[in-house]
Amino acid sequence: MNGSRRNTLMAGGLAAVIVGMVGMSFAAIPLYRLFCAATGFGGTPSIGPAAAPGGNGQTIRVRFNADTNPALPWKFAPDQKEVSLNLGEQQVAFYHATNEAAHPVTGMALYNVTPEKVGKYFHKTACFCFNKQSLAAHQGMEFPVSFWVDPAIRQDPSTSDVQVITLSYTFFRSLEDAAETGALAKAGPHVGPLSARAAERPDAN
Fold first, then answer.
1. CB-based contacts of 173, cutoff 8 Å, min separation 6
2. What's the burial of 108, exposed, middle or buried (CB within 10 Å: 0-12/13-18/19+)?
3. 28-70 confidence digits (pLDDT tens)
4. Is 75 helix (H, G, I), strand (E, B) or coil?
5. CA atoms of 190 and 194, how far apart (whole Å)
6. 201: three-class secondary structure by DSSP
7. Which residue intervals of the chain are DSSP H helices?
8. pLDDT at 202
């Protein structure tokens, strides 16, 4: 093999490696999210079509947390700070957001649960995450989330002592903003539509 042909083959091989590495980098976040959703790793709630089995008489508390990335001029908070629910029983909770800017602004929410070890037992069946939400100037909107906690959490020695789960949502202006903070890699995926109550809040200016 002459030197020119060898150099051509080496260049082609190097190009293939670079293309493969670029492809893997783009696939890394979606694959990580699928792994988290299947295993509950990193506090990612379990996602799937499984229906709530019904209450078993045991209860657990779920706290609701809300954060807003500084780039998004919204006020965002849960309607309730905490609920007590029966294990295995479906629950619906609401968050609300108000656009404090004098012009329309679009945001997108990500979520997670803590402690991280309960992720596989926290089942979200519908929410507003990963959908672009657009609010007009000073408009307010309520966003529902539907979930249930698997009774198996009490049979697992590593989670049997957990009495409180915190469900956290963070609104970002874009997925790019979320990726820069590292939040995107740990976020659970969207699980289907649940219509938001899109009425103007009474306190909107």
1. 69, 71, 72, 105, 106, 107, 108
2. buried
3. 334 334 434 443 334 445 444 466 777 778 999 999 999 999 9
4. strand
5. 11
6. coil
7. 3-39, 175-181, 183-186
8. 37
pTM above 0.70, yes or no: no
**CA 173 to centroid of chain Cα atoms:** 15
CATH code matching the domain that covers 38-186, chosen among 3.40.50.720, 2.60.370.10, 3.40.309.10, 3.20.20.70? 2.60.370.10
Instruction: Report the candidate in 30, 71, 64 with the shortest Cα–Cα distance to residue 171.
Output: 71
Bridge partners, residue 122, by sequence = 149
Answer for the pair 88, 121: CB distance below 8 angstroms, yes or no.
no
Q: Could you tell me the two tokens for 53? A: 């089995």
**Domain limits of the chain?**
38-186
